[in-house]
C-alpha cells in the first residue's frame, strides 16, 4: 500500500485553504495531522477520501488516482454519523453491502469478532440514542473497519469524549492499528493524542494550510499509559506546542492589540 | 408504567377542566345572544342527538370520512412520489414551479371547474381534496429530501452506495418520521377541502348538512357538526401521535432527524 498526495491545493472561491501539500504514506503507518483550526486538516482528509476534489494536485493510492470514495479508504467522522434509525448491528452491517467478495460470510464473522473486541456484542439491538459517546464511536469505528480499508482516516474522533473515555479510546485505536494491516491518518488539535497514537506527525500552518514540519516519533515507544509521563514525550510535546503557537501567534497578538484598544 | 399512567390521568384531567371552562363561558354567552347566532351547549347537544336518532348523522359521517380518506390517500401516494422525484432528481425539478403555481391558487376557486369536469358525483369532492393536499405534500416532501443531512449521504458514498441506494436506503429511511408528520398535518387540511366540496355540490356529508342547516337557520345543528369535525381532527391527530413512537422506536428520548 502506498498513498501519495501530490501538490494538493484547495481553494473555495478566492480563499486558499491548502497549498502544495505533498505527503507519502506507506503501509501500516500511523500519521497525525495537527494544526490550528482553519489549517485545512479536515478538508485534506475529505480530499484523500474522495469526498472533495482538490483544486490542483492528485491523490494516488497504489498508483491509482482517487477521484471518488472507495472502500479502500475508510473514514471515522468527528460526529460518528451512525444512523439513528438503525440498531448497532444494522449500522455495522451497513458497511457490508458493497463489498465485492465471494465469501461474504467471512466478513460477517469478522464483523462479529470486531464487535466482540469493542465490547459491543451485548448491545447489538440498541439504537444509537441509547449509547454513550464512547460506544457510538466504537460502532462508527467498527463500521469503518468492516470493509478492511487500506487506509483509515480519523477526523478528530475523540474531541467530543470526556478525557477518561478519550484515553481509553486512544488505547483501543492504537490496539486496532497494531492488529490490522491498515494505515491510519488522524486529524487532531490535541498534541498528546497525536504523540500517543502516531508514528509520524505533520504540523500544518494556517491561511493557507501548508506543511510546517514533519516529525518522526521513536519507533521504540511502547504505547502504554506510562508513555505520557516520559521525558522524551514531554520534550516532543513542548516542541510541538511551540511550533503550533508560533504559527498561531500573529492571531493572538492581533486579538491582544484589539483588547488593549478597548 | 405508574408515571405514564399518572401523566395520562393528569392530561385528561386538564383537558376536562379546560373543556368545562369553555362550555361554561359558552353557556354564559348564549344567555345574552340570540339562539340563532349562538345556541346553548344543551341545544347543540339536543340537535346532535336528533341527527343521531334520525340516522342522517351516521350517514353524513361515513360518507365524509370515506371521501377524505380516498382523496387524501391518493394525494399522499402521488405527492410523496413526485416530491421525492423533485427533491432528488434534477430532471424533475421543472415540476416544482408548476406545483408552486397551483399551490397559490385557492382550491375553492376550482369548485366550478371540478363540477364541470366530474359532475356532482363523488369524484368532484375527492378531486378537490386531492388537489388541495397534493400541492402541499409535494412541496413538503421535496423540502425534506433537500434538507436531509449531507453527512449521512457522505457515509453512503464512502461505503460505495449508488445515488439510488442512497435515496432508498438512507434518505427515505431517515425521513420516515417527518413524512409521517406531513401526512398527519395534511389530513387536517383534507377536511377543510372536503367541506368546500360538500358545501357546493352534495346530497349528503357533514359539509352538506351544515349548508342545509344554514338555510333553515338551524345554528344548533351547525354547531354540533362543527364540533364533530373538530373531534374527528383531534382523534386522527391523537391516532397519528400515538402510532409514531411505536413505528419509530429510535425517536424515543432522542431528537428527531430534521
Task: Give structural notes.
The complex is a heterodimer of chains A (262) and B (258). Chain A is α/β, with parallel strands linked by helices and 262 residues long. Chain A contains seven helices and ten strands. Chain B starts with a helix and ends in an 11-residue tail after the last helix. The mean pLDDT of chain B is 89. The longest helix of chain B has 33 residues, at 56-88. In chain B, helix 3 crosses helix 9 (176-200), helix 3 (56-88) packs across helix 10 (206-215) and helix 5 packs across helix 6. Classes of the chains: A alpha/beta (262), B mainly alpha (258). At the A-B interface, strand 6 of A face helix 7 and helix 8 of B.
Short description:
The complex is a heterodimer of chains A (262) and B (258). Chain A is an alpha/beta fold and 262 residues long.
Overall strand count of chain A: 10
Strand order of the largest sheet of chain A: 6-7-8-3-9-10
Structural class designation of chain A? alpha/beta
Give the integer mean of the pLDDT values of chain B.
89
Characterize the largest beta sheet of chain A: strand count, sense, and whether it forms a barrel: 6 strands, mixed
Largest protein interface, residues of each chain: A-B, 24 and 22 residues
DSSP summary: helix tally of chain A: 7
Amino acid at each position: 500500500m502506498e498513498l501519495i498526495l501530490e501538490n494538493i491545493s484547495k481553494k473555495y472561491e478566492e480563499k486558499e485553504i491548502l497549498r502544495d501539500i505533498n505527503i507519502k504514506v506507506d503501509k501500516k503507518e500511523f500519521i497525525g495531522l495537527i494544526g490550528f483550526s482553519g489549517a485545512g486538516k479536515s478538508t485534506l482528509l475529505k480530499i484523500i477520501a474522495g469526498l472533495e476534489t482538490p483544486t490542483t494536485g492528485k491523490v494516488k493510492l497504489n498508483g491509482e488516482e482517487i477521484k471518488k470514495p472507495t472502500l479502500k479508504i475508510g473514514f471515522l467522522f468527528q460526529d460518528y454519523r451512525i444512523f439513528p434509525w438503525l440498531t448497532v448491528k444494522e449500522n455495522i452491517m451497513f458497511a457490508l453491502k458493497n463489498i465485492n467478495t465471494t465469501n461474504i460470510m467471512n466478513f460477517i464473522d469478522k464483523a462479529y469478532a470486531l464487535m466482540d473486541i469493542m465490547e459491543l456484542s451485548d448491545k447489538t439491538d440498541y439504537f444509537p440514542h441509547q449509547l454513550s459517546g464512547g460506544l457510538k464511536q466504537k460502532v462508527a469505528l467498527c463500521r469503518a473497519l468492516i470493509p478492511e480499508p487500506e487506509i483509515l482516516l480519523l477526523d478528530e474522533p475523540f474531541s467530543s469524549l470526556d478525557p477518561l473515555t478519550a484515553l481509553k479510546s486512544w488505547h483501543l485505536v492504537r490496539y486496532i492499528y497494531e492488529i490490522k494491516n491498515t494505515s491510519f491518518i488522524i486529524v487532531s488539535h490535541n498534541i498528546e493524542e497525536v504523540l500517543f497514537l502516531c508514528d509520524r506527525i505533520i504540523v500544518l500552518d494556517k491561511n493557507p494550510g501548508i506543511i510546517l514540519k514533519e516529525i518522526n516519533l521513536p519507533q521504540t515507544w511502547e504505547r502504554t499509559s506510562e508513555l505520557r509521563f516520559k521525558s522524551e514525550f514531554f520534550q516532543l510535546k513542548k516542541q510541538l506546542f511551540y511550533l503550533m503557537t508560533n504559527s498561531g501567534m500573529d492571531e493572538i497578538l492581533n486579538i491582544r492589540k484589539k483588547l488593549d484598544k478597548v | 408504567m405508574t408515571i405514564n399512567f399518572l401523566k395520562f390521568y393528569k392530561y385528561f384531567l386538564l383537558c376536562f377542566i379546560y373543556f368545562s371552562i369553555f362550555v361554561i363561558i359558552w353557556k354564559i354567552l348564549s344567555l345574552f345572544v340570540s339562539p340563532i347566532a349562538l345556541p346553548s351547549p344543551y341545544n347543540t347537544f339536543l340537535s346532535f342527538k336528533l341527527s343521531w336518532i334520525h340516522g342522517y348523522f351516521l350517514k353524513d359521517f361515513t360518507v365524509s370520512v370515506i371521501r377524505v380518506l380516498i382523496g387524501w390517500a391518493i394525494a399522499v401516494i402521488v405527492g410523496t412520489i413526485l416530491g421525492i422525484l423533485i427533491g432528488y432528481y434534477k430532471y424533475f425539478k421543472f415540476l416544482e414551479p408548476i406545483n408552486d403555481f397551483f399551490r397559490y391558487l385557492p382550491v375553492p376557486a376550482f369548485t366550478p371547474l371540478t363540477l364541470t369536469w366530474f359532475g356532482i358525483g363523488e369524484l368532484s369532492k375527492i378531486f378537490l381534496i386531492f388537489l388541495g393536499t397534493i400541492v402541499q405534500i409535494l412541496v413538503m416532501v421535496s423540502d425534506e429530501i433537500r434538507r436531509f443531512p449531507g453527512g449521512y449521504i457522505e457515509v453512503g458514498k464512502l461505503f460505495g452506495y449508488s445515488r439510488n441506494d442512497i435515496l432508498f436506503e438512507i434518505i427515505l429511511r431517515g425521513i420516515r418520521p417527518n413524512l409521517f408528520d406531513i401526512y398527519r398535518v395534511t389530513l387536517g387540511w383534507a377536511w377543510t377541502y372536503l367541506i368546500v366540496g360538500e358545501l357546493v355540490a352534495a346530497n349528503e356529508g357533514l359539509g352538506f348538512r351544515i349548508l342545509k342547516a344554514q338555510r333553515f337557520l338551524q345554528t344548533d345543528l351547525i354547531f354540533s357538526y362543527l364540533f364533530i369535525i373538530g373531534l374527528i381532527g383531534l382523534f386522527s391527530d391523537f391516532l397519528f401521535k400515538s402510532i409514531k413512537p411505536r413505528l419509530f422506536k429510535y425517536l424515543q428520548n432522542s431528537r428527531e432527524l430534521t
